[in-house]
Design goal:
By secondary structure, this protein is α+β, with helices and mostly antiparallel strands. The chain is built from three helices and three strands, in the order E-H-H-E-E-H.
């Protein structure tokens, strides 16, 4: 949920924060993977929305089982 304290980021600022290109962000917006605010012809993405997007797509590492027998020779 967007709050009044949220900063609205441009597509360029969003791409920089994600470490991606502008095209990636625009494609995610068009495909409705990132919620956005439309101000006339301009698109803005709230800080909290971007944080939620990253959290939802964070993949936890797989824990490997340790073998009781060690490595095979």
């Amino acid at each position: 949920m967007i709050t009044h304290a949220d900063r609205l980021l441009t597509v360029e600022e969003t791409a920089e924060r994600l470490g991606t290109g502008v095209r990636f962000v625009r494609r995610r917006v068009v495909e409705r993977h990132i919620r956005y605010v439309k101000l006339g012809k301009h698109i803005r993405i709230a800080d909290s929305v971007l944080d939620a997007y990253v959290v939802e797509r964070t993949v936890e590492p797989v824990r490997r089982r340790c073998s009781r027998y060690g490595k095979a020779a």
